[in-house]
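Sample entry (105 residues):
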Amino acid sequence: MDPLTAAGAASLLQPVAGAAARVVTDKMRETAEAFEASFLSQMMKPMFEGLSTEAPFGGGDAEGSWRGFLVEAMAKQTVKAGGIGLADQVVAQMLKMQEAGETAA
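Predicted structure, serialized as C-alpha cells:
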C-alpha cells in the first residue's frame, strides 16, 4: 500500500491517534480519581472531628493541625486501593460527554 494515498496516511496516523486517545483517557482517569479522593476526604472529615487530641494517646495541638493532611492521605490511599467506584462512574460520564460532543460536531 502506498503511504501517500489517503488510506495509507490514515493507517500511518492510526497508532498516533490511539496513543493520543490513551493519553486523554489516562488524564480522565487521573481527574476522576482526584475527584473521588476529594469526595472521600470530605466524607471522612467529620469522623475525626470528635476525637480527643489530649494525652496519653493524643498528639496535642500538632495532631489537630495535621489531621486534615492525614484524612486526605487516607482518602487518596482508599482510591489507590480501588475506591468506592465513583471514579469509574465519572470516567464513564466523561467519555459519554466526549462522544456526544464529537457526534454533534
